[in-house]
Every structure is written in C-alpha cells, then in structure tokens.
Amino acid sequence: MNIDAWVWWLIGAAGLGIPLVLTALPEFGMFAVGALAAAGTAALGGGAVAQVLVFVLVSVALIAVVRPIANRHRDQRPQHRSGIEALKGRSALVLERVDGSGGRIKLAGEVWSARTLDVDSSFEPGQSVDVVDIDGATAVVM
Question: Which residues neighbour 70 within 8 Å (Cβ) at sequence distance 6 or greater?
C-alpha cells in the first residue's frame, strides 16, 4: 500500500489539530495550516524539499504575523466595570440629608444609604453628589 505524500501531510495537519483543541494553543493551528499548504504542494507535484519548505514558510509566517496581532487584541480588551465598580464615579440625587453619619441617595435608580467622605460636610435633599466609594451597602459621596 503506497500512500501519496499529500495524504501524509493531511494526517499531520489532523494530528496538529488535536493538540490545538486540547490545549487551546493557537500555534498548533498555525502548524496545521502549514501542513495543509504542504499537502497542497504535494498534490500539485512539488518535491519533498518544496513541501517541507512550504510547511516551514507558511507556519513561520503565520506565527510571525498572527501571533502579535492576537496578543495585541488580548491586551486591548475593553474593561467593563460591573457591580460596585460600575457605581463609583456616578452622580446621585440626595433624598434625605447626607452627612458624616448617614443619609439616603438615589443611585442608578435605587435608594442607597450614604455618608459623606468628609465628616464635616453635608448635602441637602435635591442636591447632586458624586459617589467616590462603596463601603458595604453604603455609598460614600462628596
């Protein structure tokens, strides 16, 4: 049984695809694409040296081009603030007098207990305040 070289390259590409799926390392996928290119070279009648050369060139080119782009995209993910981090820096409306010992505000459509950052300051109902921190279930405002 004589198997053509392009079939061996396809088997190699499939073999490189298995660790790609198991380890999620994209480099294995790039090598698999290089093996597919080498299979195409073999199917078109290219010699063994041409096949290996195409495999190496395509694999290295993909790693040199795709990997830096992927790293750049991974590092530039948008930072979505959620939970209490999303509330910090927002404006709120004072519902009941807020001072260093307590009060009530309306923050993001909800009523929150609040206290001032500076114990000597106070805010009257109807004033707008900025949330600087969340301490447990209490908004710290200024």
Answer: 26
Query: How far apart, in whole angstroms, are the C-alpha atoms of residue 65 and residue 52?
Result: 20
Task: Report yes or no on whether pTM surpasses 0.85.
Answer: no
Residue 23 has pLDDT above 90, yes or no: no
> Other CB atoms closer than 10 Å to residue 128's CB: what's the count?
11
Cα–Cα distance for residue pair 90/116, rounded to 1 Å: 15
pLDDT in tens, 80-103: 778 888 889 899 999 999 999 999
Contacts of 12 (CB under 8 A, 6+ apart): 35, 38
DSSP secondary structure of 41-69: HHHTT--HHHHHHHHHHHHHHHHHHHHHH
Q: Which amino acid appears at position 62 of this protein?
A: L
| Torsion region of 106: left, alpha or beta (phi above 0 gives left; psi -120 to 50 gives alpha) | beta
Query: Token pair for residue 58?
Result: 């395509």
Residue 2 has pLDDT above 70, yes or no: no
